[in-house]
Amino acid sequence: MNAPRLVDTARLMLATGKGLLAMDESPPTCNERFAALGIPQTEASRRAWRQLIITTPGLADSISGVILFDETLHQRCADGTSFVKVLENAGIVVGIKVDTGAKPLAGHTGEKITEGLDGLRERLQGYSAAGARFAKWRAVISIGEGLPSTACIAANAHALARYAALCQEAGLVPIVEPEVLMTGEHTLQRCADVSLQVLHEVFEQLYVQGVLLEGMVLKPNMLLPGLNCSQQDHIDKVADATVTGLLRALPAALAGVAFLSGGQSAQLASARLNAMNQRYKWRLPWALTFSFARAIQQPALEIWRGEPGNVVQAQRALEHRAACNSAAQQGNYSAAMEAIDKAISDV
Ligand code: 13P
């Protein structure tokens, strides 16, 4: 394992004032989001959308790395430049989603196990040769009556740790993503209990597999009440619960934390990340940043709608969300940033 290279890459990914942009939706997930806005569900549309994202002016001021899907890693801009080259020229580190999706877990109705370990060593070598310096694997855990089961948590934690060890062997920084879903009526406390149980198991398995904590990034959910919970807690309470939980479960040696957005609104995701950094940055052993997909892309996608004439306006919206999250990473975000942007776009 080339530990210094892994540590260097992790440091680049977690640079102050920067975070990650996830644009690694599989074609079916990307098509679903396009369908909701009447955008053609074709390879050409997906390429055009992703070209719009990576050529956004000023993106590298707030974004240290992007996570691509296999299809995107091999795509090119209209002028023939490969996406990887465009990103490298901008100083943005290239990452790749390497799991092959969450499938039903045998014997456990309603639960999933993420697959993709077979042949992963060889695929990682190919991705590294194609320019990737980090990878992502997402496990999903549902909260419900009797869920999650210990079987689901154990199987997913084991797979995450084996994936992480393979990545480090191949010289790629693993993003380890155990996502406790927001779907449901559960309270913040229940999410905190489940998230801690999951994180303890994940770090136990990472230890067993010998994963270098300084050379990996954790991508957790924020600790939140379920989307349909009648009590939606204040931003500060979510920040307190999330930071308290992470401090209890994460080793200090970990390179850093980059949250997923998970279906929160873009503004709420920024406000919550900001509250965590504003209130606690001074006492945290690791950086807290973002690795958002929907909370960065969605407002821009709603402007673009597949129309070439909307590209510039959509890129402005994307750059704005990236800048808001950059400010939140430093505890400098405020609702006024949104108001100023709206005033400018209304002119
Ligand atoms: P969201 O920010 O939309 O949750 O996506 C992050 C991600 O990469 C999910 O795997």
UniProtKB/TrEMBL annotation:
Pathway: Carbohydrate degradation; glycolysis; D-glyceraldehyde 3-phosphate and glycerone phosphate from D-glucose: step 4/4. It comes from the Bacteria. Transmembrane segments: none annotated. InterPro entries: Aldolase_TIM, FBA_I. Gene3D superfamilies: Aldolase class I (3.20.20.70). It catalyses: beta-D-fructose 1,6-bisphosphate = D-glyceraldehyde 3-phosphate + dihydroxyacetone phosphate. Its EC number is 4.1.2.13. It is an enzyme of class 4 (lyase). PANTHER family: FRUCTOSE-BISPHOSPHATE ALDOLASE (PTHR11627). GO terms for biological process: glycolytic process. GO terms for molecular function: fructose-bisphosphate aldolase activity. This is Probable fructose-bisphosphate aldolase class 1. Belongs to the class I fructose-bisphosphate aldolase family. Keywords: Glycolysis, Lyase.
